[in-house]
Automatic annotation (TrEMBL):
GO terms for molecular function: DNA binding; DNA-binding transcription factor activity. This is HTH gntR-type domain-containing protein. PROSITE patterns: HTH_GNTR. Keywords: DNA-binding, Transcription, Transcription regulation. Residues 8-75 form the HTH gntR-type domain. PANTHER family: GLUCONATE OPERON TRANSCRIPTIONAL REPRESSOR, TRANSCRIPTIONAL REGULATOR, GNTR FAMILY.
Length: 228
């Protein structure tokens, strides 16, 4: 028997699983999500399913439609570039606080991720390792609300990477050398230099994303803010 778990874990469980699937590129842009099918798969009633879909819509991962099934939304150029503007404003603040709390173990974690990135040729894996590095770099901060806001931003970047890989337009751009320079600056107690390098790294990343989106504007899976 199906149960309504709207006040329990049902909506969050559905939301987290569907969110992960959408970000990973499992569903193509424009695909309809059938509420009854999702309800059957999770063995829950449609009430928590609808709540989970509203949560996904609030994060712009799907579009709700009156009288129709919700659909997977495209990548919005404005949103993607806004993500990096948020990162540029907040990551240096988190790094400034993090540096005093970094330990030998936390630095080793950063270096291990850099090494994996250096020898990886899988673009999806490299995107994941990039996210892992930034999270590891900033995790020592005691400003946990700030850290949570920053870590949430990487979902959009990951989704963009998956779509570009599917379109075969993604060119591997290794960031391991830039990451290594940031870590070395921290090890040498050159805090201002580390922050400067991080800012430059995010600015370069934004330029690459702009280039990717510019080349992808005619594709249906991307929503350009310049289109009418």
């Amino acid at each position: 028997m199906k149960t309504d778990l709207i006040f329990g874990d049902g909506p969050n469980k559905i939301y987290n699983i569907l969110k992960k699937q959408i970000i990973s590129g499992k569903y193509p842009i424009g695909k309809e999500l059938k509420i009854q099918k999702i309800s059957d798969e999770f063995k829950l009633s449609i009430v928590p399913v609808r709540e989970a879909l509203r949560m996904l819509a609030s994060n712009k991962l799907i579009k709700l439609r009156i009288g129709k099934s919700p659909i997977i939304t495209g990548i919005n150029e404005k949103d993607i570039l806004e993500i990096n503007r948020i990162r540029l404003a907040l990551e240096p603040l988190a790094l400034k606080d993090s540096m005093q709390y970094h330990t030998k173990d936390s630095i080793k974690t950063c270096l291990r991720i850099i090494k994996k990135d250096q020898f990886s040729t899988d673009p999806i894996k490299k995107a994941d390792l990039n996210n892992q590095f930034h999270i590891a770099l900033l995790k020592p901060t005691k400003l946990k609300r700030l850290f949570d806001i920053i870590s949430h931003q990487f979902e959009g970047i990951t989704r963009l990477t998956h779509i570009m890989v599917i379109r075969k337009d993604f060119q591997i751009k290794s960031a391991h050398s830039e990451h290594l320079n940031i870590v070395k600056a921290i090890q040498d107690k050159k805090n201002s230099e580390a922050i400067k390098l991080l800012k430059g790294h995010i600015v370069d990343s934004t330029k690459r994303i702009k280039s990717l989106l510019s080349n992808a504007e005619i594709e249906p899976q991307f929503t350009s803010t310049r289109q009418s």
